[in-house]
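To close the chapter, one final illustration. This time we ask the reader to focus less on the individual chains and more on the assembly as a whole: which components sit near each other, and how the overall shape emerges from the parts.
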Amino acid sequence: MKTQLKKGTLDMCVLAALAAGDSYAYELVSILSRSMEVSEGTMYPLMRRLQAEAWVSTYLVESASGPSRKYYTLTAEGRRQLVLMQQEWQEFVSDVNSVLQLAAGQTKGEAS
Amino acid sequence: MNQQEFISQLQEALSRLPESERQDIVADYQEYFRDGLAAGRSEADIAAGLGDPRQLARELTARHHIARWESRKSVGNLLAVVGAIAGLGVLNFLLAIPFLFYLWLLTMAALAATGILIGGVVLFGTLACNELFGWPAMHETRDMRAVWSAFEQGGPVGNIHIRGSRGEKVDVVRDASSGKTSINIQSSDGTVSLERNASDVTGQLRIEDKEGQVNIDALDWGFSRKGAWIASVLMLLLGGGGLFLCYLLARWTWRGLLAYGRYQLGILDKARGLDG
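The assembled structure is written out below.
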């Protein structure tokens, strides 16, 4: 259950991280792995998928030391998508919570 | 596995992608290694985190081919998708062979339908052009036909009756009201009768002698304009319908294939999520 949920919401988490500011692959993995378990191998195929959907675009930034670095930034479409995903997520969470609370209330009622 | 091994394996497994795309992907992973090393991790640790480069390459290749097929639908791109999905290790070779055979059949059917359609268009166009401009001229050259038209245009009005001394009879009878014409030849050896309806298309031939009888109904009087019109319309319908059917089948096939490919990629995503 947890894995499937994670797969569905990983797109949203990446978009949310990018909404806070443009970022590069390694940094994105670090941001996400602060609060959740992320497989590093997932990141590039995922970023390519988001690019194919035109939710993110990339640009290169020259660095003082060594080759340039690829930054990802949200497109307008990506922002719209993020808002939609967040709404759906909130609805889903509140639905699940109310079911859990109802079930918990019933259990308590039976216990007393 | 160190960085060099990882990158060279990835590069080798990506050999089917265009150079620019391969370089882009490789640069992405090199960047990742640089960042990981800067964060104080070992090359082996980073490589282990990224997973099997060959599996990554297979997935990236499949995604690339599917995207290409979606932007431009050519037979080559479709075959690349089939190959790439087979490369994911799920649609195996044994399954791919009947699928390719099916694609071949579909192609042949589409070609046949196109041929019939083109034939119909040419015939229809020729007839319409002849109807409107009298060009190209149409010669109704079959012998039987020539006999009839000569008879109709130049022959005497009324009926002909010839009687021979040994009972031979030749009768040519034309019924003006129904447009029916018939020729009857009778001798001691047998009879030949030829009958033609006003419809201009079919007739009847009867040959009878001591040994037996031959009856041909719906005798084709050779080239008939009406018949050609019907044939051209039938060819247009058959060719057009066949081509449309092939188009529908092809659409269903590639949609199904894409859905299948995405489903397989989804399984990969899930599998990677599990070990992550």
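Chain B has eight helices and six strands. Chain B has a mean pLDDT of 78. With these observations in hand, you are ready for the problems at the end of the chapter.
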